[in-house]
């Protein structure tokens, strides 16, 4: 069967020479409170000084794409250079939708202070991004809506020390570079209010403690989906899991798919869509269904999966063989969060699934063509477009990222709605 319309690439217009990614900022309950935009000018073309290049990137990004496309209903945290502020470009941005991040401000900088005062008067929010070991820019603290400190490389004592210094000076203290659950726990205990980093994508492994029951159940669902080699085996596996089959049929019958007729059974779904498509969508639903799985983790899995798939479609065949299979790349991206989902090391999660050796190597050590695609996607996700480009030959990485982002946002919203509908129906039945 031809690929569903929901699978089609979503065209995005992106100015040439710009790479853009986003990173969620969470509160203490892992709810998303905003997205930090990682905007980078790509190498090549006209050589500009760093501040001029940053100004161009911000202006062209907002005029060509729009903040709604990038962050949905959440505010966008945008790092703005001094020149951008002094030339009054910030006043062209929507004040209700952006938070202006000012990095390492000089407290004696009178012109900067004056511009920030004007911005605050116009209801713009300012976040001071400070060196956690540097002195506090006291004269500017009264203008700041929040303060962000990068805790990368800090030990627990240093995290507590910098939080203790800055905590009395601001109502909202943000920790950036929080990439593990252990760092999250340390920053929470130190008094930070919000957290930016990849901590949701790392397993919260505690020696001697079993993974959460809900996550183990979902991992078992994935094992079942990937261990069946025939049409009948896959049908029976899904049908035995009442919650999974109900959510799958609810999802496939939604307006998102716009199927020509209503699908009434797992068998009918398999006949209409094919094994590969049902396996894919069943995997998505299994990943998103656990009650203790943060929505942003599901969104990350979807974004990585779709981005890997789109990148693979763009790659030409090489002298060593054909380009990587887009469906296999989708699977690799989707399963790259398995460790965080199950709360076990990635090696253990991978060992539990009947995956091909090529997929295993891609997930565990980023080897082979699939591994190159996954490594590129992870690098781009972290705001390292040059590293990503070194792993794959796809020239349109920024545009493909935006297409994947739009698809992931839409799909995750539908999955969340489907899960809520399933839960309400099940509750009503009980």
Brief write-up:
The chain is α/β, with parallel strands linked by helices. It folds into two domains: 196 residues, Alpha-Beta Barrel (TIM Barrel); 212 residues, Orthogonal Bundle (Hypothetical protein af1432), CATH 1.10.3210.10.
Description:
This protein is of the alpha/beta class and 430 residues long. It has two domains: 6-201, Alpha-Beta Barrel (TIM Barrel); 213-424, Hypothetical protein af1432 (Orthogonal Bundle), CATH 1.10.3210.10. Helix content is 52%, strand content 11%. It is built from 20 helices and eight strands. An eight-stranded mixed beta barrel has the order 1-2-3-4-5-6-7-8, surrounded by five helices. Strand 6 (146-150), helix 6 and strand 7 (173-176) form a beta-alpha-beta unit. The longest helix has 33 residues, at 397-429. Residues 1-12 and 207-211 have low confidence and may be disordered.
Strand order of the largest sheet: 1-2-3-4-5-6-7-8
Please mark out the parts with pLDDT under 50 across 5 or more consecutive residues, or reply none.
1-12, 207-211
List how many beta strands DSSP finds: 8
Rounded average pLDDT: 82
Under the CATH scheme, which architecture of the largest domain would be assigned?
Orthogonal Bundle
CATH class of the largest domain reads Mainly Alpha
Outline the biggest β-sheet: 8 strands, mixed, barrel
Q: Which fold name is given in CATH as the topology of the largest domain?
A: Hypothetical protein af1432
Silhouette: elongated
Task: Work out the radius of gyration.
Answer: 23 Å
CATH superfamily of the largest domain: Hypothetical protein af1432
Counting H and I runs of at least 4 residues, what is the number of helices?
20
Helix content: 40-55%
| Sheet/helix structural class | alpha/beta
- Please give the alpha-carbon distance between the first and last residues: 38 Å
Beta-strand share of residues: 5-15%
Number of domains: 2
Order of helices and strands: EEHHEHEHEHEHEHEHHHHHHHHHHHHH
